[in-house]
Amino acid sequence: MSKTKNAAGRVVRCPTCAGDSLYSPDNPYRPFCSERCKNIDFGAWASESYRVEAKPDTQDLSDDEPHGPH
Question: Any binding-site annotation on 17?
Fold first, then answer.
């Protein structure tokens, strides 16, 4: 979802602060606008604030079943 295009790259919305961010090799934090926004996003993943939903497959289900007396 590019807002504008220029010779250096395109300007996109930073996923953290919604400010302008240059999506270009010149921006080492892309798609974030700054190191701060990148670290905020990383911290949210590390603290499990963000989660990717996954349904258990048959292997996961069989691992949870008891395997007999212990």
Answer: yes
Question: Was 40 annotated as part of a binding site?
Answer: no
CATH classification of the domain holding 25? 3.30.50.10
pTM: 0.62
26 assigned binding-site residue: no
pLDDT for 7 equals 56
Q: Is residue 29 part of a domain?
A: yes
Model pLDDT for residues 11-24, shown as the tens digit of each residue: 999 999 999 999 99
Answer yes or no: are the C-beta atoms of 30 and 21 closer than 8 Å: yes
Cα of 61 vs its chain's centroid, Å: 28
Would you say 33 is a known binding-site residue? yes
Identify the domain containing residue 37 by its residue range: 4-49
